[in-house]
Design a protein that fits this description.
Length: 743
């Protein structure tokens, strides 16, 4: 032990941050610097690594980041094991390496601490989008950050800033929907929730905006396939949500796997340095997606080997290679020693990494308190927050006077997702229900109704079970609640070992329609004459045209999380008003794709009467029914003429004209008539969620920023053209004029 007088400056918490970073960086060898820029894992990835293996890599190769929990193949998914091994690995880093630099643990807690069995899972991305509630998104992220930190991790690979442009894509459920505006507001809210007042707070984590710059419109809907979009679409569809995250001070950014305009993002200086750091001014860390470095030579074929890929990612601007492990660190050392990579490039990245570790307080306290972890992770207030988020997400698509159900209704609960905890969570969650305490739809209905509840699964995702038993049970019930949809999956709808479905089976990117087994089950129950409520537990907008035409009620529940079954049941029985609104279009068929509310106008060469509608969905973006009825008064603008950097307020009188409380979402759309370039037929530019008692009236105010109406230019700045704009709320449209001479 050194005496306090011999304590190095970087150990002195009273010293300035810059001095601590500089002092430590000056003491580091090339090998130690390289190690700080590389992470490893414990669990099954390309190979299985034990916690002992990870400890050896930390001790012998100075690796600075670890993923031992918080992802699909992790070594640990139970809280006590997680905490024990986090502390064990931190002890190795602090006591068995020369400089004692603490480890950074990262997790995929994208919708709550869902990769920990005891953790709290919130609705997945589309469900959060359906709340149209930035404050709710922020609360969920705050709870998630607290649970993540108390488990021992410091960086969360969230929020997802991708805009859902391709519903066939297997990661659509991670997004907040198809509106760049809605995605941006919710991504920014998540950053605020994760990072709080700053990562110096012991309950905050590093937020990671992903997947930069454009991931979510892949060719064929195939995960990580090229995204071939114009510069205009890149700037005005994909970048805005990242701009909102950057405005909130997001600490880290993750590139996408795919190529954009021929350049794989992980190896693109154009995107990671020129655009992200240069044009957009980002000064945090750039962290690779898993295996994103190796994909440059294994899949994109733009480098010859791993060494070449390491060099290209470093030239591009990568800071941390998440799980590239020892090979990456050794290549970095070789590249510097052989003069192919300047050591100063490593110094810049290491400086950013060390700065975050100091700000996180890891040099003062890197360990986890097991008792505190048990008290916090999955705590009752966190489960209540999950329930409230799920309640807000419930989106009633159709209701022919069936809902809400009577309190004493006898109910048949059926379908592959009626009592399936893992399916209810969706991807980026534990693939096994052991140790979880998830409330399924069956659980929720049994808890809410005073009547009798029968359960018959009736079908798996793709195969019939005992449909006759379900039909017999339906005949004795007042109503049948049939939960259909999709299972847990990741990326390209796998892996098979976890989903139980083969790549050529549903779900896949070739079909958005329910499999025959599920539809046959619904039809058979419907034919009994017992009213059917269809509940869609799914990650994507599924084509359910038969159900929309035939069953009297249809509820979109998304992947609703830990308490989702309770939220579904409360909604069906009227304890919760369905206040969710679709954040993404539900198409009539695959042939109607792409189906986007914000499509571009275009000519119709042989006449409009000869041209089918460009937007003809089964259920449109923003759709959702309430049990209450709302009427809007006259929509007005506080100022109908504004300057390009001024704001105005949209005023909307709203009255609940029904005899029960309910929730509505006031949605403000704008059409640009001023821009010299083609712009969408309408764009979401504001929204406000409002809950009113029976007979209550309120005036809802939605701020409209003229700067938000413009186009993002090559410098990443919105430029608003002078001229006329239409502002639409409900069925009403009012005019707005932007004048550059206005003062």
């Amino acid at each position: 032990m050194q005496s306090s007088s011999e304590q190095p400056l970087y150990r002195d918490e009273t010293a300035t941050l810059s001095n601590r970073v500089e002092d430590l960086l000056d003491r580091m060898t090339l090998e130690e610097k390289a190690g700080q820029l590389v992470g490893t894992w414990a669990g099954q990835l390309s190979e299985f690594k034990t916690v002992d293996d990870a400890a050896d890599e930390i001790r012998d190769h100075h690796l600075g980041a670890v993923a031992s929990f918080g992802w699909g193949g992790a070594a640990d998914m139970r809280l006590d094991d997680i905490v024990e091994n986090v502390n064990r690995l931190q002890e190795v880093a602090l006591s068995e390496t020369r400089l004692g630099i603490p480890l950074l643990f990262n997790v995929d807690a994208v919708h709550g601490h869902a990769y920990v069995a005891e953790g709290t899972a919130f609705p997945n991305g589309l469900g959060v989008g359906a709340t149209w509630d930035a404050e709710a998104a922020e609360r969920a992220a705050d709870v998630t950050a607290t649970e993540v930190r108390r488990s021992g991790a410091h960086q969360n690979y969230s929020p997802t800033c991708d805009v859902a442009r391709e519903p066939r894509w297997g990661r659509a459920f991670e997004t907040f929907g198809e509106s760049p505006y809605l995605c941006g507001k919710l991504a920014a809210a998540k950053v605020r929730g994760y990072q709080g007042e700053g990562i110096e707070d012991s309950s905050s984590v590093i937020a990671t905006a992903k997947h930069f710059p454009a991931y979510s419109e892949p060719a064929r809907g195939e995960d990580a396939a090229p995204v071939e979009v114009s510069e205009y679409v890149l700037r005005n569809v994909f970048l805005p949500s990242f701009l909102d995250a950057l405005d909130e001070g997001v600490e880290s950014v993750m590139p996408c796997y795919n190529a954009v305009d021929g350049e794989p993002a992980h190896g693109s200086r154009r995107y990671l340095t020129d655009l992200l750091r240069g044009t957009l001014g980002f000064d945090g860390t750039v962290v690779s997606d898993w295996n994103g470095v190796r994909m440059l030579h294994d899949d994109h074929k733009i480098t010859a080997d791993h060494r070449g890929s390491v060099r290209q990612t470093r030239d591009a601007g990568l800071d941390i290679a998440s799980v590239d492990a020892v090979d990456h660190a050794e290549h970095l050392v070789e590249l510097v020693e052989e003069g192919e990579l300047a050591e100063s490039a490593l110094d810049e990245s290491v400086g950013r990494v060390l700065e975050q570790k100091f700000r996180l307080g890891l040099f003062e306290d890197a360990f986890v308190d097991p008792a505190e972890a048990r008290d916090v992770v999955g705590a009752a207030p966190h489960r209540e927050a999950s329930l409230e988020a799920a309640r807000e997400s419930m989106t009633l698509l159709k209701n022919d006077d069936l809902l809400p159900l009577d309190d004493d209704a006898d109910v048949l609960v059926a379908g592959p997702n009626a009592d399936a905890p893992v399916h209810q969570l969706g991807g980026w969650s534990v693939p096994d229900p052991e140790g979880t305490d998830i409330v399924t739809v069956r659980d929720g209905v049994e808890a809410v109704t005073d009547g009798d509840v029968a359960y018959e699964q009736g079908a798996t995702m793709n195969d019939e079970l005992d449909v006759d038993a379900a039909v017999d049970a339906a005949a004795d019930a007042d109503v049948a609640v049939v939960a259909v949809g999709e299972p847990w999956y990741l990326h390209e709808f796998g892996p098979t070992a976890d989903t139980g479905t083969e790549p050529d089976e549903f779900p896949n990117r070739h079909s958005l329609s329910l499999p025959d087994a599920q539809r046959d089950l619904v039809e058979a129950i419907h034919e009994t004459g017992t009213p059917v409520v269809g509940v869609l537990i799914t990650g994507r907008p599924l084509i359910v045209d038969w159900m929309a035409d035939n069953v009297p009620a249809l509820l979109m529940a998304y992947y609703p999380g830990t308490m989702g079954g309770r939220a579904v049941a409360e909604t069906l029985f009227g304890e919760n008003d369905p206040g969710g609104r679709l954040p993404i279009t539900i198409p009539k068929s695959e042939g109607h794709l792409p189906a986007r509310f914000n499509h571009f106008p275009h000519p119709t060469p042989i006449g409009q009467d000869e041209h089918p509608s460009s937007y003809d969905p089964l259920f449109e973006f923003g759709h959702g029914l309430s049990y209450a009825e709302f009427e809007y008064g006259q929509v007005t603008l506080a100022d109908s003429i504004v300057g390009p950097h001024e704001t105005t307020t949209v005023e909307v009188p709203v009255e609940n004209v029904s005899d029960r409380a309910g929730t509505d979402v006031v949605q403000v759309y704008v059409t640009d008539h001023a821009s010299p370039t083609v712009t969408p037929v309408r764009e979401l530019r504001g929204f406000e969620r409002v809950s009113l008692e029976a007979g209550e009236r309120d005036s809802v105010s939605v701020e409209l920023d003229a700067a938000s109406l413009g186009r993002v230019d090559a410098e990443g700045v919105r430029q608003t053209a002078a001229g006329d704009y239409s502002v639409r709320v409900g069925e009403q449209t009012v005019g707005l004029r932007v004048e550059t001479t206005y003062d």
